[in-house]
Task: inverse folding
């Protein structure tokens, strides 16, 4: 069961990257350097999670990548904060979308999910089912993105407003 849980980290992290890249695309570069660097930094953090998951499943040892997992958490959070700053400056989407994803990642992502150690070690934010918070955040972000696309599509359509 631990192998399955660890393997699920790959789509879990890739979903975050997909959301960040979709929101960046919606802003069409108006999020500037902060958004670009934030997206790349988030991608590096996600790559760290993928490497950790693959190495852990391959070796059966969660410590096989050393401190890469906590470093991936820090890098991903730094990227999300930069992306949130760029998004707020762009003023294309609602100001709260990317900060909400950042909070969702903290309270429902790998930070929260890393709390299940046998001796109580891990994140103080964790609880069973914490990833449902992140899933709810993704749904809200996707709905906001869909509303943005709908409004943007009607503005560009002939005679639309």
Result:
């Amino acid at each position: 069961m631990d192998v399955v849980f660890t393997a699920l980290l790959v789509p879990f992290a890739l979903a975050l990257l997909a959301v960040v890249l979709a929101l960046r695309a919606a802003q069409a570069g108006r999020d500037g350097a902060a958004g670009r660097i934030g997206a790349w930094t988030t991608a590096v953090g996600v790559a760290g999670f993928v490497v950790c998951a693959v190495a852990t499943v391959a070796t059966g040892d969660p410590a096989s990548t050393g401190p890469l997992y906590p470093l991936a958490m820090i890098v991903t959070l730094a990227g999300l904060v930069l992306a949130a700053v760029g998004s707020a400056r762009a003023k294309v989407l609602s100001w709260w979308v990317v900060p909400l994803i950042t909070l969702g990642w903290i309270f429902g992502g790998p930070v929260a999910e890393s709390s299940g150690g046998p001796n109580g070690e891990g994140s103080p934010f964790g609880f069973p089912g914490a990833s449902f918070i992140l899933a709810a955040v993704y749904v809200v972000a996707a709905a906001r993105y869909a509303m943005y696309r709908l409004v943007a599509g009607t503005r560009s359509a002939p005679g639309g407003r």
